[in-house]
Amino acid sequence: MVMEIVCPAGTPAALRAAVKAGAHTVYCGFNDETNARNFPGLNFSRSEMRDGVAFAHDHGAKVLVAINTFPRAGDEVIWHHAISDADACGANAVILADPGLLDHASRNHPRLRRHLSVQAAAANADIINFYAKTFDVKRVVLPRVLSVPEIAAINAETTVETEVFVFGGLCVMAEGRCSLSSYATGLSPNMNGVCSPASHVDYAEDQGALDARLGGYLIHRVEKGQPAPYPTLCKGCFSAGDKTGHLFEDPVSLNAERLIPQLHKAGVTALKIEGRQRSKSYVAQVVRNFRAAVDALEAGRPLPEGMLARLSEGQAMTTGAYKKTWR
Amino acid sequence: MSHPQNPIPHCPAALAAMLRVVPLAPLSLSLTVFSRRIAQNNPGLVQRLGEYDRTGFVLDPTDLPIVMCLNPNGGLPKVTLCRQPSKGAARISGPLAALLGLVHGAFDGDALFFSRDLVVEGDTGAALALRNAIDDAELNLAQEATALSGPFARPVQQLIAFAERQTGLCLNRPEDSVIW
Amino acid sequence: MDLTIGPNQFFWAADRWSEFYDDLAQAPANRVVIGELVCSKRLPFYQDRIPEAVSRLLEAGKEVALTSLALVTLKRERKLTTELAEMGVTVEINDLTVLAYLPEGCAFWVGPLVNVYNEGTLRWLAARGAKRVCLPPELPLESVATLVRAAEDLGVAIEVWGHGRLPLAISGRCYHARLHGRTKDNCQFACEEDADGLDVLTRDGKPFMATNGVQTLSDSYACTDYQIETLRSAGVSALRLSPHSNGFTRLCTLYRQRIDHNLAPGDLAHEILSTNPGTRLSDGFLTGEFGAEWSGTKPQ
Lengths: 327, 180, 300
Prior knowledge:
Radius of gyration of chain A: 19 Å
Strand order of the largest sheet of chain C: 1-2-3-4-5-6-7-11
Distance between the termini of chain C: 23 Å
Shape of chain C: globular
Order of helices and strands of chain C: EHEHEHEEHEHEHEEEHEHHEH
CATH topology of chain C: TIM Barrel
CATH architecture of chain C: Alpha-Beta Barrel
Largest sheet of chain C: 8 strands, parallel, barrel
CATH architecture of the largest domain in chain A: Alpha-Beta Barrel
Number of domains of chain A: 2
CATH topology of the largest domain in chain A: TIM Barrel
Oligomer: heterotrimer
Number of helices of chain C: 10
Number of helices of chain A: 10
């Protein structure tokens, strides 16, 4: 089976671009706090979602709706509506993280396919099988803390499909288990669907240097002409003891293009591209590259050379946790 | 697509020189009419701005002697060109070609920003909303300009034709094959 | 409202570890969660001390639970977690993986690293046997109040993070090892050098976070001095105090006094700051705009 390319779409235009560029599957979210990319100007209204799903289906592609934040106490109904609306729009599956929401979906929308979001950070076969048994989860998006051999071991112990990130922004923390952002800004991925939100970013040029702050904390200072990474907390430059540097992670982005054959061998079903916040031109180019790669793999041809460096944050790439030495 | 081997063109001196002398008030008025037409034809664009639909944006083509102040004004946009540095809640500066390429989906905003071809100052959330709204709208400025009529049409059309002739800037939505 | 002592987040030498729990037996806390939360590699160094500490705490009249790891990944960690479920002591789950091993209906506690953000999740956990839930520290007061109301009907006691450096993130990567130019597998237990975590500052010198192996904590120590009345009237059943290396039993006493109205609002924080000058406190997750905020710097 050819590996499935699961591609992000922050706007209807990006969805169409992704489908035309060869995405097997597109994932997107509603324009509210129910999804983990709740950024200004992004995401889908209900009618845009309906049209987007119809467009994708007409072109033989699937649509997954990410409802992967953790519902706010007292307001769960907003998240419940998102699930029923995704169902009504004809979505092929919903991507969920919150156990309460999974429970709700499995009771009230048993026929709507459920995927476990990376935000659930299900990092071993036992918990994955538990989610499958308890909520009939069909696919799990694996957290970005696992090496390729560990992924292979998980696949050997579960029949749940696995989906792994291969390109884009890289969380160094276990997803869904991080409140660095709300500590500095009051807004978090779990509660608000944003990490290091743009509303709290401040860039200021100072004598040829560019300071990037988040919620008043200096995250980066780059000299004139240097690449300027977005001030994501865990990619910042900090001091500890007598050392100064990127304590958590360098401003790199994930590119596991070269690992596709190994991931295939490890039993991975789908390759996920991060970046619902990126433009449609980005989405289309990345999809083209990865589609060409999986098609080449399927036909037994060598992988085409990658051309994606310039699209990345800070323009440096890593294979992340897929190689064990990353830890 | 913005590959290192495919650098962003620089706006030539001729256009910059022209903008140093032409009166800006009529041009501002024309651009206001032009932007209202775009807003009217693309209602999703202003909707996507959400809470930022009345934010003052300063668009600063760094290779031109002017800046453009844009206020979406809840769907009835207003454009003012200035020669002095101007204030706004969010400022996006970079070569004209980068700004136009962004509008036409020829460049990825994040990639331009990471490479510092574009610089955002002030309210980053507002700048992001504008970027995302424009990215979804699939605008074609040249086509929109051609469709303009009335007294305001000529200055905009002339400006665009001139710019395109002189610069090879991205003023039309490129076909897929050209972009990637 | 009473006091629960959370599991020690840091890596202390076995003797220091034992001494801490000996002292704690005398502290005015009602229950203690014990065991390794952060990194499975630390456990062999003090594992054999746990049974003794547990019996001492039980003798002192405290309820005791054993914590699970915060992130269960490796085969060894899964085995550890299975054993935990079979030990016959109450388990506090800090990774849902434990539920895969606990017999259905078996009573357990839920720690602050499990994402209990809403009534649906609370209900689901209660149905599986949860009796006590310490809410995630990032929850605002309104959510706490809503969840306490829901918990009353479910027979679940709700705890709130009361004091200590906030657990902000957990990772597959060890930052202590990275800082020393090592990988996690060859960490040489660098985290043992920092009994309360290693301070992380921004490049302009502002204290921000603290690293603790694979865990990232806040620089500030959460402190609920200014929220105790509100939390009590909301129906919160316990405050959770997180172990730190200095003066911890005294801290427990101060909180007990504050809960018993023997200390006025503000006096608790004042006491903490006067004995630990340079410590920064925060309560922004509960009542502020952002987590690092502190009510003590605002006019009360």
